[in-house]
Amino acid sequence: MSTLFRTREGTRAHKVSFSELFFDLVFVYAITQSAHFLISHFTAYGVFQSVLILLAVWWAWIFTTWVTNWLDPESVTVRLLLFTLMFFGMLLAIAIPKAFSDNGMLFAVAYIAIQLGRTLFMCVVTRHKGAPLHRLFVRMAIWFALSAACWVAGALHEDTTRTAWWVLALGIEYLSASVSFYVPGLGRSDSKDWDISGAHMAERCGLLIIIALGESLLVMGHTFSSTVWSGATVAAFISGFIATVAMWWLYFSLSAERASERFTASAQSGHIGRLVYTYVHFLLIAGIVMVAAADEFILAHAHGHIGTATLVAALGGPALYLVGNILFKTLMFNSHPRSHYVGLGLLAAQLPLASAMSPALLAVTTTATLVIVAVWETIAVLASD
Length: 385
Fold this sequence. Notes:
The chain is mainly alpha-helical. The protein has helices at 18-40, 44-70, 76-95, 104-125, 131-155, 159-178, 198-225, 231-265, 269-300, 308-333, 338-350, 359-384.
């Protein structure tokens, strides 16, 4: 079984394999499906359900990322594991549009197969790897088995009862990681025992973000090509493109590589991996999804009045992305980027002015906010070097 694990010497421990990138494509599809669900159900309750779906998709992806941090995807066995998880990931993504109606059981079973199936696999292969790692996955399997019962119970019910059961299921899972998978009689796992490659996890999260940004561009381009072109729609399209570039700039140009270096050198890599890359990075993905929804709303209705859905998505998406970046940079660099706080203030200032704007103008002003933040921080970083 030891041949299934990465060697910790040289670059092999940090290498992101092609099979991992192949695996990611399915989950970017699931993220896109989550965005379409949000667009189609943009009410208070629909947004809440969309968050639940996205939390489940993210949790399935990030836990697999942790596993491939230890396992070697160049092994045939591990590749077959990834491809099996991809299959269930496809079923999960396919079920998303009707997860709270006709496809609830498909969504639940696919999710359980990914989370519990992968964890049971790790329970087997870690038996001779080391007691701390093996006990971690045993504890994790117990937590996932408990949540699995809630997923199935929710799938057997409808409407708000299903939602309530699934809230409980996700609450159990997210709580489990925060309490280090504590199980009475078995204790808890110590993040100091989680020997992970910081460079690998940082690159995996970065690659998912960049693919998600790219996918949002493709969706925006498809929507723009099917609309009637006018000054407003062209302005909204250009604005959406620039906003996506600005989001890329805020994360990749200014932070990602430096954070990866600190992550790799840290003696608390397990703690950083759990707090920063497992929890905080979800906010970045959620912000990208919300911005993609805003692009869809604005391109479809570039003229006229700004609806509630458009306003919430157009201001909430960039705000969520900035909050994610604030937490990321504060935790990794112990810094408080003033440009990001100013950006949040500028977004808030646009709220009372929105009634006098067209959707296209709102797109331009929110994009201008992201550009101002990116330029400000770039100047600040260059001045400090």
